[in-house]
Amino acid sequence: MVLKKAISTPADGVTPPGPPSEPPLLERSRSDGIVVVQKQFRTGQLQFTDVMLKQFIEDDARSFVSCGKAIDTEVTNDWTVVCGGSVAEPLAARTPLPADAAVWRCAICLEEQQTGSIPESQLCGQPDCSDRFCFECLSQYCLMAVEGSKFMVLPVRCPSPACKRRVPTSHWIKYVPDSSYQEYVEAARAILMFRCPACHSPNTLFKENVSTEQSRGILKELLGKAMVNNPGSFMTLKESWFRFSAGIASPDDVLDSLLSVLGHQEMSFDAWPIARLFEEQEAESFLSRLLPTIKDIERRTVFHLATLRRHPNIFTPCCKAAICWKCKVAGHHEGQTCEEIQRAELEVDVQFCPGCGVGTEKTEGCDHMICLCGAEWTWDNGQEDTEW
Q1: How many CA atoms within 13 Å lie on the side-chain side of 238?
Q2: Ramachandran quadrant class, 311 (left: phi over 0; alpha: psi -120 to 50; beta: rest)
Q3: 90 pairs with which residues across the strands?
Q4: Which domain CATH number covers 114?
Q5: Residue 51 to residue 28: CA distance in whole angstroms
Q6: Residue 15: CB partners within 8 Å, gap ≥ 6?
Q7: Does 242 map to a domain?
Q8: Residues 157-208: pLDDT tens digits?
Q9: 58-72, 204-218, 294-308 — which is least confidently predicted?
Q10: Does a structural domain hold residue 274?
Q11: Which residue has the higher pLDDT, 176 or 56?
């Protein structure tokens, strides 16, 4: 016998309603932190602390010292060593392997390729990088690297397991869609954004690069005397710049060498104070003329940020209004740190992330804080822990 559950039906034939359905789970609405930060970038409202800028400039992805590979650092008298953003010459045209050559293997997908096909090689430009790649694999690799680094404008690393050196921007451009590269450029513009306190318009300090011929003329005018007055100091600058282009020297190393050369150029033993880079002469500052000679956009951006980290007190190009670029406030607030200014401007209680130094507001929840930079810390509510 099969037992079935009896369902009573009212006389009017209407089935009674079943048990109430469970209410949908409540989901906390929260904004995407990355989108918020990108919006602050684009509107020139993102405030930087010294710790945050230091982390941005010295990000591990920008250092290529640990790859353990030598860099061809031959220093010549050619001006392109200084004005160029890459270590190597542009990639030569691809040529097919000889018909009798052995089958080659792509170092990314590890699949053997047909004899006579045209491999990609020496993406980093270094002559001892011997791995070969499929065009499709290399395109996908470069695209993923660029898509994942647009927010930080990070460099691309050579995909060869035996190399891992820095790939000049001019070398990977041809492997990605133009739209991806333009987004990369826009990210560099956004990082250098500010809002003018006089006209209240967002603007950027970003500088477009100029041609190699123009770079030579500009650098000869800016640094030509150094070759005569102190050639040894000038060659030190060229070597440090060369190493910086390869990602094995920091922008601060180049900045120190540059300031030293500029002092020696005037027959002085003292380096230039960094403020002189920002002083305008004939409507342009030394820095605004130097930056366009750096061809590589990632190297140009990180060098520009290094100068602003040391000297954030600038005058806006549009209205010549005094502004602190780091904390984005009018005036140069001498005698007060950017952290003190940011804290005073906020009407709410804020505490500063120990990882990146950004002012943080707690709106709800427990005292465990997780910053966008990845640091975790405990909100100080001014009360001592009590053991229950």
Answers
A1: 22
A2: beta
A3: none
A4: 3.30.40.10
A5: 31
A6: 7, 9
A7: no
A8: 999 888 888 999 989 999 999 999 999 999 999 899 988 989 988 899 999 9
A9: 58-72
A10: no
A11: 176
